[in-house]
Design brief:
Layout: E1 2-3, E2 17-18, E3 29-30, E4 40-42, E5 54-56, H1 59-65, H2 76-88, H3 100-107, E6 108-109, H4 111-140, H5 146-172, E7 175-177, H6 179-185, E8 188-190, H7 193-220, H8 233-252, H9 261-284, H10 286-291, H11 296-315, H12 318-336, H13 340-348
Parallel strand pairs: 4-7, 5-8
Antiparallel strand pairs: 1-2, 3-6
Helix pairs in contact: 2-5, 4-5, 5-8, 7-8, 7-9, 7-11, 9-11, 11-12, 12-13
The protein binds fe (ii) ion (2 copies).
One fe (ii) ion binds at residues 127, 130, 158-159, 162, 239-240.
GO cellular component, one term: chloroplast thylakoid membrane
Protein name: magnesium-protoporphyrin IX monomethyl ester (oxidative) cyclase
Pathway: Porphyrin-containing compound metabolism; chlorophyll biosynthesis
Length: 349
Amino acid sequence: MALVEPMPSLSAAIRPSIRIRKPPSLAVRMSSTAASATPAKKQAIKESLLTPRFYTTDFEEMERLFSTEINKNLKEEEFDSLLQEFKTDYNQKHFVRNSEFKEAADKLQGPLRQIFVEFLERSCTAEFSGFLLYKELGRRLKKTNPVVAEIFSLMSRDEARHAGFLNKGLSDFNLALDLGFLTKARKYTFFKPKFIFYATYLSEKIGYWRYITIYRHLKANPEYSCYPIFKYFENWCQDENRHGDFFSALMKAQPQFLNDWKAKLWARFFCLSVYVTMYLNDCQRSAFYEGIGLDTKEFDMHVIIEASIVLISSLHCVLLCILMHFIIIPQFHIWTGTNHRDLLIILFN
Ligand SMILES: [Fe+2]
Ligand SMILES: [Fe+2]
């Protein structure tokens, strides 16, 4: 058993443990192979309902929503200070590769090699999807709200960096995603601005918890760290956390998306569907989590609970509270011995 550290502000009472799997059947087989010279270009991953998507929205409605003349809830000081934080660019020098990457990739053989390639492909597509959406929002909002537009552009900078780093990872496996082709050829899913806010806010906050949980687990159990990309997750996830904080501020400036009964239902629906999609995706790929020493279900439960503590306050997810109270927390309690009562006190306060 190894503890995954909670955020410093949370009580030790809710410190959940994530069970470390016994050496997996899909153990990382270490052997060296000759590397081929030129990376093969991959154009797309297999499409399914659970494949990471590219999004587009009603940009004219977005322009109206962010017009400071129309929307008096937009607090300029709050967005100015968020902009300063994005301009600081904490991770400017973080994503620097070294020789460990290629060496580690060459040692990954057998089924786990294929699983790693799929992990890199899907993650790269998801990050690139964020880049495209934020870049377009940065471009379209320039006139109505230059501060918000610049933040979107700086977030697209972060996502491009993340996608590029993952694509470089694919080159360790002699592959590369053709992102230019993907931009043109991939279908874009249309979401109204309200749903873009819910979906992106949720995926940024959940992304933060996924990255930090994997990072902390591998730091405590370095024998499972079979590829160096995970060492970068600690700073990387802070980018996602900042993106989530920005969406939180955006949603506060649009109270109509949170306060009426329809909005509340939609917010809950999105929350549940994002959790279900994550869970189904991860269960299909449990070999990956086992390969890095995690129990897939426990990993997901941990991410859901930690993310929900943040999300409940923003999205007023009463249904989710009920679900957590009657289903998720009791299960979590049975699996890990986490103190149910203490967790509820924190959730409902
Ligand atoms: Fe990202
Ligand atoms: Fe992000």
